[in-house]
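protien #1 (seq + structre)
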Amino acid sequence: MQQPPSENSRTKGPDAAANAATAAAKKTRRGRPLGDSDAREALLETARELFANRPYRTVTLREVARYAGVDAALVRYYFGGKAGLFEAMIRETLAPVLAALRHAGEHPTQTSAEQSQPRQTASGQQQAEHLMQTYYRIMGRHPHLPRLVFRILSEGDDLEPFAILSRVFSDVVQASDSWLKQALLLPGQFDQSVNPQFARLSFVSLMVFPLIAPPLILRRLGIHVTPGTLSQLAGHNSRLFSQGVFTQSESAADTTSGETPQ
């Protein structure tokens, strides 16, 4: 699939980004005709290109279908309409992150990889790093999605996409609440002087900001966001977070045993 428009195209203004998105979508499915088994994924891929860089109201189903190389009737067949396509795109992209959050909340303890070793409780830092790695792995493949979400939730001028994202992120918030209570608030781990609500906000900020930060700030800081950078950043942020919200004994143990991902 054609990659999303570069950061350079975004910094040149909305028209340049929209034109780049349209051009990318046109190239997405050139080649052999699609069978039904590929049509759904083709529509999702094209929708990611167009919705990420153009206002929701300007993207039409006929346009998505044409650029995806499929019959327009398949959009309604698979998704019911424009809102269904948009929601499926968001939910299916975020599904691995949501699954990781739910798993962390439901299974705060993990067994060692070696069955001969005793059961071990996953530390707060290990849980935090796993969630960040999962998020960065998924968003690294779709770097335009966090900006799309941020834009819609900030502006709120399109009622339909705002309502869809509100429903999706209510599930994310519910899962993160469960994780915070079950995975982080384990006896003897969480620093009782830390406000849990502020801790959650700090975690989300550390995890999300690198992917929505203005390109100018990243350039001034000398940061080039790549999969390797994000992997290293997950380890760094989890240690930084752990030293602020967990008890000193756990933070010290994690710091001495952990290594920065390469």
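ok now protien #2
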Amino acid sequence: MKTRHKRLALVATGLAVLGVAAWLILSAFQKNLVFFFTPTQILAGEAPHGRSFRVGGMVEKGSLVHQPDGLTWTFVVTDMAHNINVNYRGILPDLFKEGKGVVAEGQLGNDNVFAAEQVLAKHDENYMPPDAAYALKKGREANAANQRMGATTESGNTNGNASAKGLK
């Protein structure tokens, strides 16, 4: 074999080894990659089924229920626009409270109940993950818009021509 052919075989082998290494690294990242979704995104169908992801928001006040088995908890996570029910079997963090921020990791069931494998409580009064803060802000804006629309509907002016009644 000529030196030229040996060099070409060595380069081809090196590229093949690099390709296999890159594939192994990327597949490991793909298995451990966990995305964050809000209740609004989950109910819109954006969250993956059969795959682990994180849901974040606020624990709705009055929703925390301790099941009789002593280890199972159910609560509702809200982004102020939509809610998602969460089931968790385990010990909740000390900082976990109703009305506070939470991030839960797990999978969404067919019944749209999130089965959490891990629950993370907000650790500082001033800190909230940027995605969760943005989602809560958008949820509050959507709630405010819905309330304004409801006030307009309740006043009887649903189609914008209240003054037309006086012209007849």
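The chain is about 40% helix and 25% strand.
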